[in-house]
């Protein structure tokens, strides 16, 4: 029986046949009779959904580092021949009470022409009430900022209107440094061992950021020069590579960063092509392996304001964990590797059209339902040619492993159960068993898409690292389980929570206390962009957080070994019907 | 009779025959019996003389903007993993009481390696107790600064040891912008009308400065990277062109500079190749045509501390005048043109070997004695081939005109007296009379070196501009004559004061109250380099000085016309014997 009431008379009259075919229902008419996951179409949401690395928008009080002021100066005359900059400072002091100001050198170079072009009526952009960073002729109130999250694998950029706090454009791309090393350690190796390695990596990330800033501002008919402020977060290595600081000593004991505190650096010194006078603010780093991105997560989630103990897992190429409440916060870094981002997985790929992102396996027949990004329905609703699967992204991998474990295809120790007879269990190129998710004819690559034994191993290592890290922090903190779990990161927002629990990605917690918050690091950057108080808060909390070097903990190896195992099922089988899909349509 | 006692027995025994032949005497033995000018050999002076644009060294209290501190940091450990920069700040705070410090971005890039190379014992260079601008491994106390005077025609650069205040190297060169325009107005035209004009001029001056800094530091076995601080002065146009600020509005009424107040700009932003973290400090500008160079003159001469009324004339391509005492200071700018620097004079040349720098004419015979730079004696002591005159420099021109006027060759209105019969009075190429200073055979150019009617005109215009400016300021100030006259500028230090008085370069003043102080603008830059209090004083006095726009004065045209005339002789004829020559040897 369906968990939803049949279409009402009103729905039949108001919804088109096409809309009805997509499963669309009216919330005011449909009656829910059992567990159900509901998808709210983009057009009914407050803002359009954007692909991956989205941040959750919420009402952020606005108090940015930069502001524009309109000024009417008295023109220079023979009797009043004061210099242009001196005249500007005088006006800012008299009309806006701003004293002891400086002027950016590039702004100074423009000032004289701008004043006369605009008949002495200009708009000045002031940074931190300290420095005139730009001058424009005539009245201009549009003032943009960019929040940038530099991940090891991806880079995301949010353009905000600093007057309203609204995100007006979002862009993301691969971190081009991937070509020089997949993870943090290989990047450190490249930067420190190759000739001009650091410069190569710095130029690569800045070049990509500049491209993102062009396309993001272009979306809204503006230009990168309209960007007057930036906040950048990243793990400590990304932070250092972006600034051109050697990451050599982050990579070796005692893993010391070149700078922990927040930094303000002229964008032009870094080659970042925004307004010539703009600063880049970098949130502080916690430690060698817990960087400004985790500080971003912290101010976005603010576990330090809560009574409940939060376990916050930021899943990227590196996994970062925060545990605590208003009394105490611990942090740790886990070398998960890029398995969750599709790397080190035979058919792994980024979350892009064609990627298998959802998997369900029938325990009786071992038949597979999967959904690829770009299609709304499970693959069985399309002809073979239409499906066009190209690989598996992170959430698809978690789903597949969880389902294979649930159906007994994978054993507790991660080995494939070769006693099972199914055409989907085949012998791979390495003579070890593989499980076929998509048959060659269902793909765009003309080959079976499979999960291999070594794929399972990569996921075990990754999830083991996170689970073990969380366990050690819980023990140090003196609690058995967290009150709530927050999954952050591009990946966290697409993960199926039950599948994640099923494979043991994090210690057990009631499913309703598991929250996906999307790119919290990016959201933290955005908060710091929009509100100076958040920057102050970041500087404050970074000194309070206790960093735990997991590898130094006596329990580490034992915990890690145990965490690699697959756990007993907590919540044996939930009907496929109740699982999240992208439409309300139940799967039968 | 000689004005000097004959050689004593001691002198005969102590001085070599060669030394005696050069006229060398011992100050403890020789008895002076009449007017005499004494030349102190370079080796007996406190410092070696350098050619032109020298500054007068005096005891300057040292309080520079930069200082080096030696630090021993506690190494990072697993228990103390604080970031490198944070550790540095902590150490500077604990050991030196310096708080709220920043670190220059380029210094930050070096910090981690430097700390570890030097086993955590480093030297940090601190600017204004505000910013760490450089870090070096191990102990280093040598700290250099550069004072730079950018003139319209020449650029001079003094390298000082900021620990001792001693000038350790001096270099000067032509301002390469001369190729794009001889005076301030033609430079403004080039900068504002030619494509990339401003950029071309900015690059030219910075390129030349960089070459000077290399050769100056090379002289003393050091490198431009050892320079940690710079102070630059120049007239307002040179100031703007050096910074890449448009000089457009200095060139048109109301002649407003882009910035008057002092500025601190990172040298690297300007392309100045010194230490990457160093700042350039620019002294404030007084007005559109009285710039930071005049502020340099002011703090070097400090007329505002005196009871007597000083008239300070800084003679360059532009002439700048200061008049006043502790109660009030007036300033003005005079468009003298480059005649005093040898330009716009048919045989004019810079003060370089071969230039005629001294001239005496016998009123009876109209025969000429002259001295060229590079030779110690009047030309009559050399064979024709040895003389090698190439042209006339500024002091030679003043001497020549003064002597020609004294001997009646030039009339009061500047015309040549064609009633005189002399083989030296010839008809020039423009069919107007010329006076031959050097016969072709006495030159290295194979042609007579002459003073033409238009040369006299150029000098009249130049001296007229200065005289008229001084007269107008005196009138405004309410005094008839100044208590003292100070001649500043490269040219001022080589001028024959009596010749200058004779042609009416400045209003009459007792000759003993006329002082030549050399490159006072450069000395002011040096003071500001060595002592922060001088920078503060400059900022203060610049607001107190009253700038007078001469062309706006009702008397200007009449005064200028009168000032072009040659004056009645004040002190009819002084014997050649008493005139300054470069050796004590009297001329007979």
Q: What order do the helices and strands come in, and which of them pair?
A:
Two copies of one chain form a homodimer.
Chain A: H1 9-14, H2 17-21, E1 66-72, H3 84-96, E2 102-103, H4 105-117, E3 121-127, E4 131-137, E5 144-150, E6 154-161, E7 167-174, H5 184-193, H6 197-219, E8 227-234, H7 236-243, E9 263-266, H8 267-270, E10 279-282, H9 292-301, E11 310-315, E12 319-325, E13 328-334, E14 355-361, E15 368-372, H10 384-387, E16 391-392, H11 394-406, E17 425-427, E18 433-438, E19 449-452, H12 453-477, E20 484-488, H13 497-503, E21 514-518, H14 520-530, H15 532-544, E22 546-547, H16 556-564
Parallel strand pairs in A: 2-4, 5-8, 8-10, 11-20, 13-22, 14-16, 20-21
Antiparallel strand pairs in A: 1-3, 3-4, 5-6, 6-7, 9-10, 11-12, 12-13, 14-15, 17-18, 18-19
Helix pairs in contact in A: 5-6, 9-14, 9-15, 11-13, 12-16, 14-15
Write up this protein.
The structure is a homodimer of 588-residue chains. Chain A has 16 helices and 22 strands. Chain A has helices spanning 9-14, 17-21, 84-96, 105-117, 184-193, 197-219, 236-243, 267-270, 292-301, 384-387, 394-406, 453-477, 497-503, 520-530, 532-544, 556-564, and strands spanning 66-72, 102-103, 121-127, 131-137, 144-150, 154-161, 167-174, 227-234, 263-266, 279-282, 310-315, 319-325, 328-334, 355-361, 368-372, 391-392, 425-427, 433-438, 449-452, 484-488, 514-518, 546-547. In chain A, the strands form 5 sheets. Chain A has a 6-stranded mixed beta sheet with strand order 7-6-5-8-10-9, sandwiched between helices. A 6-stranded mixed beta sheet of chain A has the order 21-20-11-12-13-22, sandwiched between helices. In chain A, helix 9 (292-301) crosses helix 14, helix 11 (394-406) packs across helix 13 (497-503) and helix 14 (520-530) crosses helix 15 (532-544). The longest helix of chain A has 25 residues, at 453-477. The N and C termini of chain A lie close together (10 Å). The model of chain A is unreliable at 45-52 and 569-588 (pLDDT under 50).
């Amino acid at each position: 029986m369906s968990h939803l009431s049949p279409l009402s008379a009103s729905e039949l009259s108001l919804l088109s046949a096409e809309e009805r075919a997509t499963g669309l229902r009216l919330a005011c008419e449909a009656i829910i009779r059992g567990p159900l996951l509901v998808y709210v179409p983009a057009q009914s949401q407050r803002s359009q959904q954007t692909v991956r690395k989205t941040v959750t928008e919420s009402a952020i009080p606005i108090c940015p580092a930069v502001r524009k002021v309109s000024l009417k100066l008295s023109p220079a005359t023979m009797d009043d021949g004061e210099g242009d900059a001196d005249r500007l400072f005088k006006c800012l002091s008299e009309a806006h009470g701003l004293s002891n100001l400086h002027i950016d050198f590039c702004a100074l170079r423009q000032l004289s022409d701008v004043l006369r072009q605009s008949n002495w009526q200009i708009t000045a952009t002031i940074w931190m009430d300290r420095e005139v960073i730009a001058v424009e002729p005539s009245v201009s109130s549009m003032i943009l900022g960019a929040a940038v999250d530099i991940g090891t694998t991806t880079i995301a950029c949010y353009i905000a209107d600093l007057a309203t706090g609204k995100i007006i454009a979002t862009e993301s791309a691969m971190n081009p440094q991937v070509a020089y090393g997949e993870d943090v350690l290989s990047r450190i190796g490249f930067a420190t061992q190759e000739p001009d390695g650091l410069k190569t990596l710095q130029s690569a990330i800045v070049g990509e950021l500049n491209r993102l800033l062009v396309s993001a501002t272009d979306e809204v008919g503006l230009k990168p020069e309209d960007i007057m402020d930036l906040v950048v977060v990243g793990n400590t290595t990304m932070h250092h590579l972006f600034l051109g600081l050697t990451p050599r000593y982050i990579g070796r004991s005692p893993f010391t960063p070149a700078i922990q505190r927040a930094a303000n650096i002229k964008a032009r010194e870094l080659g970042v092509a925004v307004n010539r006078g703009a600063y880049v603010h970098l949130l502080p780093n916690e430690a060698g392996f817990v960087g400004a991105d985790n500080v971003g997560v912290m101010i976005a989630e603010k576990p330090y304001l809560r009574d409940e103990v939060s376990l916050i897992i930021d899943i990227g190429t590196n996994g970062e964990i925060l545990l605590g409440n208003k009394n105490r916060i611990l942090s740790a870094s886990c070398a998960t590797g890029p398995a969750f981002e599709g790397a080190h997985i035979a058919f792994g790929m980024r979350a892009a059209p064609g990627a298998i992102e959802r998997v369900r396996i029938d325990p009786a027949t071992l038949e597979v339902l999967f959904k690829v990004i770009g299609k709304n329905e499970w693959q069985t609703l399309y002809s073979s040619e239409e499906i066009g699967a190209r690989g598996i992204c992170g959430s698809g991998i978690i789903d597949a492993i969880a389902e294979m474990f649930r159906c007994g295809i994978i054993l507790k120790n991660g080995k494939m159960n070769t006693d099972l007879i199914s055409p989907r269990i085949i012998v791979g190129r390495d003579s070890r068993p593989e499980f076929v998710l998509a048959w060659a004819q269902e793909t765009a690559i003309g080959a079976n898409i499979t999960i291999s034994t070594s794929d399972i191993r990569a996921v075990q290592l990754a999830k083991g690292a996170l689970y073990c890290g969380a366990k050690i922090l819980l023990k140090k903190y003196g609690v058995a389980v967290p009150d709530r779990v927050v999954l952050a990161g591009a990946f966290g927002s697409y993960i199926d929570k039950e599948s994640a629990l099923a494979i043991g990605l994090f210690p057990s917690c009631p499913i309703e206390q598991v929250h996906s918050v999307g790119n919290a690091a990016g959201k933290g950057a955005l908060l710091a962009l929009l509100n100076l108080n958040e920057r102050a808060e970041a500087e404050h909390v970074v000194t309070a957080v206790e960093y735990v070097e997991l590898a130094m903990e006596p329990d580490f190896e034992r915990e890690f070994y145990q965490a690699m195992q697959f756990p007993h099922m907590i919540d044996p089988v939930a009907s496929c019907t109740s699982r999240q899909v992208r439409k309300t349509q139940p799967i039968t």
